[in-house]
Amino acid sequence: MKLVPVNGYVLIEPYQETQRASGLIIADTGKSKPMRGTIIAASGEWSKSVGTEVMYSKFGAIEVRYDDTDYVMVRERDILAAIDDAV
User: Fold this and answer.
1) Mean pLDDT of all residues in the chain?
2) Which of 19, 54, 66, 76 is the most buried (most CB within 10 A)?
3) Residue 26 clears pLDDT 90, i.e. is over it
4) Between vectors from CA 40 to CA 3 and to CA 15, what angle results, nearest 5°?
5) How far apart (Å, rounded) are the C-alpha atoms in residues 15 and 5?
6) Rounded to the nearest 5°, which phi and psi values hold at 37?
């Protein structure tokens, strides 16, 4: 069984940073919520973009836990940018 977003929502697996470049490990309580992740499933125009890395608005994100994994659901309009490594 898998989650399938409907009504213009996109399911994103957010990045989980546990260590800074300086080597300091930040406790969960001191971290801000990630605003970058990978599309896992989508409806609408983003449905062909599964696997794409995106930046999204943290204010529009709904936290979801499914099969012991944390995800966020955002509306298509809350995706701010697709990240292209080729640029």
Assistant:
1) 84
2) 54
3) no
4) 120
5) 20
6) -170, -170
Q: How many residues does the chain have?
A: 87
Separation between Cα atoms, residue 16 and residue 36, nearest integer Å: 9
CB 41 within 8 A of CB 49: no
What are residue 48's phi and psi, to 5 degrees? -95, 10
pLDDT for 19: 54
Buried-state track 8-28, b at ≥16 Cβ within 10 A, e below 16: ebbbbebeeeeeeeeeeeeee
- In angstroms, the Cα distances linking 44 to 33, 57, 82 are 26, 18, 16
The answer to whether the pTM exceeds 0.85 is no
Strands (E), 1-87: 9-14, 36-42, 53-56, 62-66, 69-75, 79-82
